[in-house]
Amino acid sequence: MSKQLVNAIADMKEDEALGLVRKMVESGSDPSVILDATREAMDIVGRRYEEGAYYLPELMLAGEMLNEIADILKPELAKMPEVKRHGKVLIGTVEGDIHDIGKNIVTFMLDVNGFDVLDLGVDVSPQKFVEAIQDFQPHVVGLSGFLTLAFDSMKETVEAISTAGLRDQVKIMIGGGQMDEGIKEYTGADAYGKDAMAGVNLARRWVGAK
Amino acid sequence: MEKQWAELSADEKQEVLFQKWLSPKDPEGNDLQFQSPEAAQSYKERIQRIKDAIQMKKLPDRVPVCPLPSMFPAYDAGITVEDAMYDYDKCYAAWKKFVLDYEPDGHLGSSAPGPGPFFDILDYKLYAWPGHGVSPAHSYQCLEGEYMKAEEYDALIQDPSGFFSNVYLPRVFGALEPFQMLPFLPGILEMYGVAFNFIPYGLPPVQGALKAIMEAGNEALKWAGMVGSFDGEMASLGFPAILAGFTKAPFDTLGDTLRGTKGIMLDIRRRPDKLLEALDALVPLMIKMGVGAALMNGKPLVFMPLHKGADGFLSDQQFKTFYWPSLKQVILGLISEGCVPLLAAEGGYNSRLEVIKDLPKGKTVWMFDQTDMAQAKKIVGDTICILGNMPLSLLTVGTPEQVKEHTRELIDIAGKGGGYIMGNGAFFDDIKAENLKTMVDFTKEYGVY
Hints:
CATH architecture of the largest domain in chain B: Alpha-Beta Barrel
Helix content of chain A: 55-70%
Radius of gyration of chain A: 18 Å
Strand content of chain B: 5-15%
CATH superfamily of the largest domain in chain A: Cobalamin-binding domain
Number of helices of chain A: 9
Distance between the termini of chain A: 29 Å
Number of strands of chain A: 5
Number of strands of chain B: 9
Largest sheet of chain B: 6 strands, parallel
Structural class of chain A: alpha/beta
Helix content of chain B: 40-55%
Shape of chain B: globular
Number of helices of chain B: 19
Oligomer: heterodimer
Shape of chain A: elongated
CATH topology of the largest domain in chain B: TIM Barrel
Structural class of chain B: alpha/beta
Distance between the termini of chain B: 33 Å
CATH architecture of the largest domain in chain A: 3-Layer(aba) Sandwich
Radius of gyration of chain B: 22 Å
Strand order of the largest sheet of chain B: 4-5-6-7-8-9
């Protein structure tokens, strides 16, 4: 049944996938089997997105299925051991900007690609980024922004990270809206990612994952 | 105009609208008095230049240049966005400074900031704006949500106006929440049944909402007075406002305004048939919205910001199934009434060029943002006037030399043979003034045909 579940999720058959999960829970399946199948399916979804077969509708539906499956499994999940992750990524939309669609997609793609992601949300001040770096100790920081005002907010955030003496601990990537290599230079970030997969690949390279 | 409007061909209607635009009126309906003979001449030359670029029947005298700002005029004049939204005189002065400083061939008028007090009166929820979730220095930003729920497709499809008045408005305007109680108007059929339907108008909360609507109407009029006199004065100085009004792609009306990005993306997978049905239902409304503005304001260009069909949002197949058919119908509907849709394709449209190229020649303008202009020229350049795409990143952090180089490149590539308007790729806020000046002035120098 778990192979069936992998295919149902990967092929966007939401009702079938949820039906299978419920059936597996009722028949006493080990929740780790369901989680493994879900993870395998998300891997396929991520690959299909990377290959240009899947777009936003599929990513968003995959995200929904993930939440729905987590809801069904909630009682079981507490007993599960933590999964080993490649590395930690701190992400947020910079100060003054409240757009989050692009950031959420990057977060989702990082998550399904095995990163431990802490999402600070939107309109995040430089100070909040600094505090979160101190607490969460990420390897990578992702700064997202849609509007041009984000150019300065990103620059200020990178500066605040430097001032706090944390710049050497993290790699910083930027993305979204009107960002490009020129803005990367302007902000003092380490890299610009054109889309969600570029962000995942940057993070992978930086933490030395596959 | 001897023939009745309905008897005219699309070409004739477009010509009538261009001619009306070329002969501006004052608020009393008389011919507008230009401030000088030079201004009168510049006004006509500017429109002619844009018209030639759009129609592609003959080469314009030079590449028209239309810098299309968002809140830049406020920053450039040293006022905040909040000032521009709440002090109409300050807005007027800042936007006037923009037009006079940069002397664009076409400008967008002074309506971009919108009326702050109006939004206050109605307690608008769809946006955050200065003092309401955004700092005074920054532009307003959309607060996406599911203002229409997934199970409300039938309600929208069967009665779009009823849905807007009784469901949508109460959700996006706090002050209009009582409109949920409004009657179903087709219920007003005969005699005593009529009276039952008026009961909601007697209820205190509904009456409160109606008062708010009247107050909002007063504020809107006050603001529109500023916007109207602005266009009039600019015209009298020789600077035409390019837009008659705006409308949207049905997919974006649903996706931006009603269902939200996540909602509509999920609908593609979960309820594709309902989505297609709703898109069809919106087509005539979106045409009516654009045509109405063009006829009322007596000019052809109708702005259409395109959002959720960009590269990366949808697959080619999804674009061709869900985004394009209803948008194409709106475009063709506008064209058949003489309008020239100005479509601002935000993000990249590289993968969409092959799809949009079958539009009739000389009837649309496409403003490209992150689309490869060489490809655009090659694929759609024979039929579509393209506008853009000076990157905002370059305008913000680049040098005048870099901007000049990029301007030259754009004119060489996209300007070749006409059918091109120089401009920015996306609407700009706080860019470097000298960069903008360079883009405009160098186009006037180098862009001569």
